[in-house]
Specification:
alpha+beta, Heat Shock Protein 90, six-stranded mixed β-sheet, 6 strands, binds adenosine-5'-triphosphate, binds magnesium ion
Length: 394
Amino acid sequence: MTTPRTVLEALTRSPLGFLRTAWPWRALGYLLSGGVFATGVYLGVGGLFAAPIGTFARVLCAGALVVFAVAVAGPLEHRRLALVDRGDSGSGRGDPPQRPRTTGYGAVSVLAVGWMDLAVALVSLGIPGFLLLTPFQPTALPWQTVAGPVAGALLLPVAAYPIGAWAAVRAAVGRAVLFPKDRELREVVRSRARLVDAFETERRRIERDLHDGAQQRLVALTMKLGLATLDLPPGSAAARQVGEAHALAKEALTELRELIRGIHPQILTERGLPAAARDIAGRCPIPADLDLDLPGRLPAAVEQTAYYVTAEALTNIARHSGADRCRVSARCRDGVLRLDIEDNGSGDADPARGTGLVGLADRIAAAGGRMLLSSPPGGPTLLRAEIPCAGPSS
Ligand SMILES: Nc1ncnc2c1ncn2[C@@H]1O[C@H](COP(=O)(O)OP(=O)(O)OP(=O)(O)O)[C@@H](O)[C@H]1O
Ligand SMILES: [Mg+2]
């Protein structure tokens, strides 16, 4: 099972298991950081109004403090959100685009709802805390000094649930406001009819022609030139020239073999998708993290589609994104292969500006799947391919 990416996912997927994860602590950190910040601002403003300075100076200083707090709160909200939401929105991965909505959301958090975060955390923990401390209360009866701590110890883990639930609500609102619809994955328009099958047939024909025709001739030529060098007097001008021709023929053979491999990746046929993806990632100039969790070999058509998606997406990242990190992950769930390729680059990928992404959408559609793309200006970019993979092939 994949690890949850949000506190809500962790809470709903396994309510009991939730207690054994770091998510309750992350939720508590999320609420306390917001609550303490907001309370600090209120206390600061209150302190200024009590200070022995003139009314004008009080209003000026309080105003400056609130403006500063609101300016800091926007970016802070983004960072805090990463504590409880590691989802596709990209929260926690670099700074968000500076938009008025970030500042607005920060202002509402500090001025209006920050204290609620603190209240939820304090009440949830305060009740079991109070019960745990019963033995130290002078008015406590003997039975209360035993029953109180027992009830407190039992209630303490329960506190994780209101804290987690409130953090989930706040995170959902934060995500919706800070990462609005332009960050959602959108399906790239594709057409099954765009000659994918014809392309595939032609590709195979060219591959066979090269393999059986030109490659065999080049092998024969290389061998003949090698033998000719042996027959010529060593060190003679003729031997040197034939030797050079031999070296050139060998280079041409290597290039042709690479060309054939590119058309029909041998590593994919022989060793499957994970090895082929590692091979592509190894050649990508941008460091790529791989997270491939696949149940053995998949049907050949699925592996091939996934291979070309990975190759084009990583090529695009190297060419256009300006990213310094990228990630390829693949999972097979409920008969669907989900392949995600993400980068932390500049975003704004647009299928209308090239042929690569549209070609991929066609290829995936021909395999019965769909392609989704999220690439807001400023990044990050996530390309997702969902391809039916009904059962591993032998
Ligand atoms: N990962 C990415 N990050 C940023 N921009 C991207 C990314 N991928 C694609 N783009 C942008 O989207 C455009 C379309 O990409 P697409 O792959 O369709 O075409 P291309 O790479 O320019 O050319 P080709 O047809 O050779 O693939 C690119 O020109 C580029 O501007
Ligand atoms: Mg491209």
